[in-house]
Amino acid sequence: MSNPVVEASPAAPAVTWQEGEALARKASARTRRKRLALLTAGWAAMFLIWQLAAYYLPFGVLPAPLEVGEVMWDIVVSGAFAENFFASVGKTFLGFVVATAVGAPIGYLMGRYDYWKAFFHDGVTVAGTIPALTYAVLSLIIFGISDLGPILSVALVSVPFVAINVAEGVRGVDQSLVRMSQAFGRSSRQIRREVFVPTLVPYVFAAIRMSFAVAWKVEALTEVFGGKNGVGFQIRSEYQLFNIDGVLAWMCLFIIFMLIVERLVLRKLENRVLAWRPEERVGK
User: Gene3D superfamilies per the record (predicted)?
Assistant: First the structure.
């Protein structure tokens, strides 16, 4: 019995590098459009729910989005927005600086040496599980109504995130690179600068992203309880005047500002710093 003859299918046309690059760009553009559409739909749904709630709730309980938007505009035009947000940003930034100065060395020791890991591990873990409200109250008890309270609360909240992520980064360093560097006569300082630091940078950015939202919340909460300026102070002032429009306006400005910092500042900065990594270039 003769074997059936199978006709070979024509070979698929080869795709050039330029054509592949164009296809990848088109796929990336489609993905961005889908994300933008879903993002817009999500915000539209949220504002629709807010509008319906304001309409059906008793008068004065919940202002409509347009009313809050008018108050937000007045705050921005008056200059109060810039003054108070720069005050809050400054305290948050100083808290992050303190957290990095304390948490990074602790994380390096935890990741590099087992005995330091045993020494710091439980303390860092406990510090990370303490509620942010506790840090806010503790900072107010120590410093009272001052700018040091929010700075301390941000630092206390952020230190565990920084330490844990830096420790994971140190443990993730390729030891073969370390041994090769030692074989070529590199000093310990050069190994830390040229091997450990590039490996740790992504973990530091991960720590900043993880602690950013929590740090902003505890900073604003500390200002609500005992601040003399900043966003939290303004929210407390509007609350004392029973002005729900003002409370929601400052809260919405606070949310918008956090989104801008996280998505347009931190993310762009991270992409620029990590542009040398192949996965970062592909992700763009």
Answer: MetI-like (1.10.3720.10)
Domain 63-283: give its CATH architecture: Orthogonal Bundle (1.10)
**In the chain, domain spans:** 22-62, 63-283
Is the separation of the CB atoms in 221 and 132 below 8 Å?
yes
**Side-chain-side CA neighbours of residue 15 (13 Å):** 9
Q: Is 147 helix (H, G, I), strand (E, B) or coil?
A: coil
Distance CA 266, CA 281 (A): 17
Q: Which of 138, 283, 270, 254 is nearest to 210 (CA)?
A: 270
* Most distant pair of Cα atoms in the chain: their distance: 98
In eight-state DSSP terms, residue 277 is S
pTM of the model: 0.69
Per-residue pLDDT of the chain (284 residues; tens, 9 = 90+): 455 554 544 554 555 766 667 777 777 788 888 888 888 888 889 889 988 888 888 877 788 888 888 888 988 888 888 888 888 888 888 888 888 888 888 988 888 788 888 888 888 888 888 887 888 888 888 887 777 888 888 888 888 888 888 888 888 777 777 778 778 777 777 777 777 777 777 777 777 777 777 787 788 888 888 777 788 888 888 888 888 888 888 888 888 887 887 777 777 776 776 666 655 443 44
As a dihedral over the C-alpha atoms of residue 191, residue 197, residue 199, residue 202, rounded to 10 degrees, the angle is 180
Backbone angles phi, psi at 16, to 5 degrees: -75, 165
Q: DSSP class of residue 10?
A: P
Contact of 228 with 147, CB cutoff 8 Å: yes
Q: Are 179 and 186 in contact (CB under 8 A)?
A: no
The closest alpha carbon to 215, from 144, 159, 137, 266, belongs to 159
